[in-house]
Design goal:
Blueprint lengths: L1 H7 L1 H6 L14 E4 L11 H7 L12 H18 L4 E8 L2 E12 L4 E2 L6 E2 L5 H14 L27 H5 L13 E2 L8 H7 L16 H15 L3 H13 L4 E2 L28 E2 L8 E3 H12 L3 E2 L2 E2 L3 H8 L17 E3 L6 E7 L4 E7 L4 E7 L7 H17 L14 H8 L1 E5 L9 H7 L2 E5 L5 E7 L5 E8 L2 E4 L5 E7 L2 E7 L8 E3 L6 H32 L7 H28 L12 H17 L1 H11 L6 H23 L10
Antiparallel strand pairs: 1-3, 2-3, 2-15, 3-4, 5-9, 6-8, 7-9, 10-11, 12-13, 13-14, 14-15, 16-17, 16-23, 17-18, 18-19, 19-20, 20-21, 21-22
Helix pairs in contact: 3-12, 5-8, 5-9, 15-16, 15-19, 16-17, 16-18, 16-19, 18-19
Length: 674
Amino acid sequence: MKLLTNLAAMGAIFVALGAFAPAPTEVTPTTLAPKATVSLPAPGSHRAEAAAAPAPTAAHALTAEDAAAYFDGLLPDAISRADIAGAVIVIVKDGEPLFERGYGLADIKARRTIDPEKTLFRPGSISKTFTWTAVMQQVEAGKIDLDADVNRYLDFKIPAYDGKPITMRNLMTHSPGFSDAAKDLIVKDPKTLQSLETLLKAAVPPRIFPPGTTPAYSNYGASLAGYIVQRVSGEPFAAYVDKHIFVPLGMTHSTFEQPLPARFAADMAKGYRVASQPAGPYELVGESPAGALATSGSDMARFMIAHLQDGEYQGQRILSAQTAQLMHSPQFKPVPSLPGMALGFYQEPGNGHRVIAHAGDLNHFHSDMHLYLDDHVGLFISFNSAGSLGAAHNIRTTVFKGFTNRYFPAPATPELPTWKDAKADGKTLSGRYIDSRRSDSGWLRIANFLLGQAKVTADPKGVVTISSYRGVNNQPKHWREVGPFQYQDVGGDSRMAAVVEGGKVIRIMTDDQPPVLSLQPVSPAMSAAWNVPLFYVSLGILLTAAVTWPAAAIIRRRYGHSFALAGRAALLYRLTRAVCVVDLAFAGLWFWFLSQKDIQWFSSGTDGIIRLIQLVGLVGVLGTLAPLANVATVFGDASRGWWAKVSSVSIAVACVACIWFAFSLRLITLHIAY
């Protein structure tokens, strides 16, 4: 759900960009299990160590005392500076909880601290790992075949793409080829929360890739898998997970039920955008198997231990060892040299250690889970605030890299030389790219095709820069080629690689991101290189025409001049300016709609608003006949001067450009699907 959360903050891009200094939040470390007296390091020392590169060569012993010292030095200061209300962190090792601690507050108004055993957080898409675990239970029971057409298990049909059906393995590796979908993913009012069956049947996303070929994260795909579990088991999804996962593992502070059951209300952490603002509502996830879980840190410890022990926890099995090992093994590697997908989990770079993981994001909660399989270590962290400028993301990155470097350091390795074809390969990669995870069917295209394109450039030495691949300092990273289309982060340990076939770039990926996202070359027609300038120039022309129309009338009246045009010429002049006003209103209404910062705004409840905006746009589209007719009239009148000719053509081009944007960005559509 990470991308959806970013889309919810799109309004900040439109309204303003800038830093602000929020009021600091009190950070209260809540020591739970184990209790230990620790000597705190100098402030900031662990932040520097976590971000340092290369990784140290001598490992620290992973003990409760060392973990307490490390995180007590890192997290209180980090969440205070980031305006985050609170966090919970849990480490398991060798089948036991090693370290559990809460920092900050679960509820600022009530001054309630965080108890890792009882306080519930919302881990977002980490919910999917429970869904995938449920799927594998049904695979083990012989009720689901990983490689069968999923339509075998459904009571509605998912169309094939190029004759190829979707399989459960495709769903679990995020390669079914669905267009992304956001509508009704999160809603405010329990009365508008649709059943899983109703939602999935009503909003089947278009297919944009052949299955099994392209990584493209899909909440719909994960929810479809949850629905299949519901159908083949004969149990409602939330009840199934409770009976077959929560109960065997003793996860007594966990639920998929929505709204939140009353028995959990007193222990539920409040969610905040930033701690200095009021708490938000409990987020209701329409596609519940993809992100509806509420759970405590201690319950997540039990789940991590079960997976680290190949499906077993304290004598209870949720998976056979063989099934768990299959689930944790690589299944799909879009770029062979980079981490790939297991069944539901994704691989991560871990200094040579085998690490699988999942992240999760709602509006207010932001979480990570990492399993060091061969080391029998698990790490879970969750924040109940996004933080200033989305700082929770960078803190999570720092925690994972710092933890890995501290306890599982990489051996020192010599620096690889620059690849001989670096200059030529840099030129091959240069251009505009879009995310493979994108919406192609609705107005969310504006996020990918107008606002979200990545620009790849290469300097004279062949060092590549990708505008969307940034470090924790929010600056683009620079990549030096060390093998055929294999790149190393200059001054860091991240890797980037490209798949190039016949001189054509297929995709670019980095191990900084999960292998469910990739960059693909954008088509020339949709390239921001010319679409963005056209958008701004057209907007400027329309605004100039709309403003000068009444201004000229005021000036004429002030100085007693009459309007020089009459008849058809006067009518077309006025209609042309009126169309400019309509087109500006269309753009302005979309600007307003997108500036709504709450992702819950994007639901069926706003369909009427979208239809009204589209109606305005349709008037502008039909009205473009007036500027085109005005051009013919102006050029057919010898008395009209050069400025009339230039302005009439400019306005007509701007209005035609509005039609292009309205339909290419799906701002006007027959069905409201996004």
